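Input sequence (320 aa), recorded before submission:
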Amino acid sequence: MPELPEVEVVRAGLAPAITGARVVAVEVVDPRALKRHLPLGGVDAAGVGRHGVSLDAESGALRAADFERRLTGAVLGAPARRGKFLWVPLGGAGEALLAHLGMSGQLLLRAHEAPDDRFMRIHLWISHPTHGELRLDFADQRLFGSLAIDTLVPTPDGKPGGTGTDLAAIPGQALHIARDPLDPAFDDAAFVQGLRARRSAVKVALLDQTLVSGIGNIYADEALWRARLHPGTPASLLSVRKARELLGRTREVFAQALAEGGTSFDAQYVNVNGQAGYFAHSLNAYGRIGVPCPRCDTPIRKITLAGRSSHFCPRCQRKR
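Predicted structure, token format:
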């Protein structure tokens, strides 16, 4: 699943190409890619709920028609991100195009005449004052991702919604998640306090998007390896100093992953130009079961915590 670095690579790649562009036309090829989109009026006759869980033909056609109508002609603002949520404000309408990539979602910039990408679900044809005519494709092999038009709501703390925006607003569907460690408004002290208040394993706490967003299995394992923390260590047993170190290691891992274009194990994650990231070659713990630890040569092990796999060095990351 794309995590914070992968989504940030996509946001940064989109920014110069779509900011200020006008949407000329929209085509929803597969309405299943609109699971999170709610037509105006809220719940439709087929019973689509808050996140659009109904996938029958009638509700799919309704969502597709509403999405195409409301997005056509809109002027796109600068893309913003919080955690794994990405959004693009739509002119002065108080709404945004919201994207969640799920397991395999891709936002791809293409020339008008380019052939369809594999697993393409939605086309947006846009006209940019500088870059001219472009096409923005949403492709998704496994269909866990989604696009939606969502209402922008004020941030509770009055600060910008996330990375890439100065607006103190965020799509309503993303309001429930915490800020991420790369957010300029992230509160380090509040995170340390919140982490140490958890009785769960520190790995489980890092994956809790209400505490800190954007961290998934890959980067949690890598940050814990760098901090020499066993993933099963109760978060409440961390000292303030160790919790701060873990936050610093998380940012360190993110920074390296961003510099290397994110982590690609297969073609399911690529940037807006279809290129894979290469941070997978820099992993020290995640997915390296039986491989010698780069620090001490002890084979990396895997355990399961709260149903999620965790990779660690049993010598460098002893549970205390």
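Checked by second reader. The radius of gyration is 20 Å.
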